[in-house]
Write a structure and sequence with these properties.
By secondary structure, the protein is an all-alpha fold. It has one domain. It is 76% helix and 1% strand. The chain has a two-stranded antiparallel ribbon. A hairpin with a 2-residue loop joins strand 1 and strand 2. Helix 5 packs across helix 13. The longest helix has 28 residues. One of its GO terms (cellular component) is ATP-binding cassette (ABC) transporter complex. GO terms for molecular function: ABC-type transporter activity. Belongs to the ABC-2 integral membrane protein family. This is Transport permease protein.
C-alpha cells in the first residue's frame, strides 16, 4: 500500500503543479460543449418537441453535459498515462521496476493517480453549470462522483496498457488519438446510439464509456422521471440482448474491465523489466 500511495501521490502532485495542463485539458470538452450544446440544442429540442408531445421542456444541453464530463474523464485519464513513457525516458520507471515494489502496485498506483487527476478535472467541469442555464440537484452531483472515479479507473487502465507496450510519446499519442474520438462518439455522450448498425452496436456495447455515460445520465438527469418517449428518442434506454441494463450491471462491467486491463499491464511491466 505504501508503494501504491507513493506513486499515486507523485502523479497527483505533478498535476497540481502543472497549471498549463490543469486548464489546457478543458479546451476540447468546452469546444464540444459549445458546438453540441449551443449549436445543436435548438435543432434537437425542436425535433423532440415535434415528435414527442411531452418534450416541450426538454433541454438538450442538460442531456449532453454529462457526456462532456465523461469526455473530460476520458481524455485526461488516457493521456495521463503518457507519464509512464516519460518516466521511462528519464529513468524513474526503471528505478521503480527494480525496487521491491510489486508490478501490481506499480500498475494500480499509476491507474489511481491518473484516475484521481481525471476525476478532479471532471468535478471542475461542474463549475460551468450556472453559466449554461441548466441545473442539477446537488445530491445528484455528489452521488455521481464515485461513478466518475470508477469510469476514470476503467479509462486509465486503457492508457496504462497502451503505455506499457510503447516506448515513444509520439506512438502513444497517435494510438490514443485513434481511440479517443471513436470511444466518445460511440458512447451516447453526444447523441443517441440506439439505432446503430449491428457491427457498430457491438463496439458501443464493449465501450466502457458507454456504461459510464449511461450511469451519469441516470444519476444526474433522473431519466426515470422523463416520459418514456423522450427516453427512447434520446437513447436513454440502454439494452443488451433485448433487456435493459441496470446500474449494478454497468458497475460490474467497468470493474471487470479495469481489473483485466490492469492485470495485462502488470504482465507487460514484467516483460519490460525482463
Amino acid at each position: 500500500m505504501e508503494g501504491i500511495f507513493a506513486i499515486w501521490q507523485r502523479d497527483v502532485i505533478k498535476f497540481l503543479r502543472d497549471r498549463a495542463r490543469l486548464f489546457g485539458s478543458f479546451s476540447m470538452p468546452i469546444l464540444f460543449l459549445l458546438i453540441f450544446g449551443g449549436g445543436l440544442s435548438g435543432t434537437m429540442e425542436g425535433l423532440i418537441s415535434e415528435t414527442v408531445p411531452e418534450g416541450a421542456d426538454f433541454q438538450y444541453i442538460q442531456f449532453v453535459f454529462p457526456g462532456i464530463v465523461a469526455m473530460t474523464l476520458l481524455m485526461t485519464s488516457v493521456f495521463s498515462s503518457l507519464s509512464i513513457i516519460e518516466d521511462r525516458d528519464f529513468g524513474y520507471m526503471k528505478e521503480i521496476l527494480v525496487s521491491p515494489v510489486s508490478r501490481v502496485s506499480i500498475a494500480v498506483g499509476k491507474m489511481l493517480g491518473a484516475s484521481t487527476v481525471a476525476c478532479i478535472q471532471g468535478v471542475m467541469m461542474f463549475l460551468l453549470i450556472p453559466f449554461l442555464g441548466i441545473s442539477y440537484p446537488l445530491a445528484s452531483i455528489i452521488q455521481v462522483i464515485p461513478f466518475m472515479f470508477l469510469l476514470a479507473c476503467a479509462l486509465s487502465s486503457v492508457g496504462l496498457l497502451i503505455a506499457s507496450f510503447l516506448k515513444s510519446t509520439q506512438g502513444f499519442q497517435l494510438i490514443v488519438q485513434l481511440l479517443v474520438m471513436p470511444m466518445v462518439f460511440l458512447s451516447g455522450a453526444l447523441f443517441p446510439v440506439n439505432n446503430m448498425p449491428g457491427w457498430m452496436d457491438i463496439v458501443v456495447k464493449i465501450n466502457p464509456v458507454t456504461y459510464g455515460v449511461d450511469i451519469m445520465k441516470k444519476v444526474m438527469i433522473d431519466t426515470q422521471s422523463l416520459a418514456p418517449a423522450i427516453r427512447e428518442a434520446m437513447g436513454l434506454n440502454l439494452t443488451l440482448f433485448g433487456r435493459s441494463i441496470t446500474v449494478a450491471e454497468e458497475v460490474l462491467f467497468m470493474i471487470g474491465f479495469t481489473t483485466i486491463l490492469v492485470l495485462l499491464a502488470t504482465l507487460s511491466f514484467r516483460r519490460t523489466n525482463a
